């Protein structure tokens, strides 16, 4: 994952995305360098443009996680469903 970030940083800075440059960025950041991951990344980027990947990624809708307030409201609704409602007595029982 870090190698992807390094490639994006190189792209944004206008640098050439090569195995050596990605490795330099990761080393400078103090991240673990996985040479097989870097090799796979660079070979994948040769077949496509990084701009196309960025555009397609930004077009994917992102589902947001429910906020705490929404979770609380759902919990309260579930509690209400679980609690049996007391029925008002009808007929002669209502007199007592």
Give structural notes:
The protein has helices at 2-13, 19-29, 35-46, 50-59, 68-82. It has 96 residues and is an all-alpha fold. The chain has a domain at 2-50: Arc Repressor Mutant, subunit A, CATH 1.10.10.1410. α1 (2-13) packs across α2 (19-29). It is rod-shaped, with a radius of gyration of 28 Å. The mean pLDDT is 79.
Judged by helices, strands and strand pairing, the structural class is mainly alpha
Which fold name fills CATH's third level, the topology of the domain at 2-50?
A: Arc Repressor Mutant, subunit A
Radius of gyration: 28 Å
In terms of DSSP E residues, the strand content is under 5%
Please write the string of helix (H) and strand (E) elements: HHHHH
CATH class designation of the domain at 2-50? Mainly Alpha
Largest sheet: none
Per CATH, the architecture of the domain at 2-50 is: Orthogonal Bundle
Proportion in helices: 55-70%
């Amino acid at each position: 994952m870090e190698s992807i970030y390094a490639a994006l940083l190189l792209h944004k800075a206008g640098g050439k995305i090569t195995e050596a440059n990605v490795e330099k960025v990761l080393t400078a950041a103090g991240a673990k360098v996985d040479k097989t991951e870097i090799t796979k990344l660079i070979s994948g980027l040769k077949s496509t443009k990084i701009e196309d990947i960025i555009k397609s990624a930004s077009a994917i809708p992102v589902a947001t996680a429910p906020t705490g307030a929404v979770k609380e409201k759902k919990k309260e609704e579930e509690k209400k469903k679980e609690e049996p409602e007391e029925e008002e007595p009808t007929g002669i029982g209502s007199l007592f």
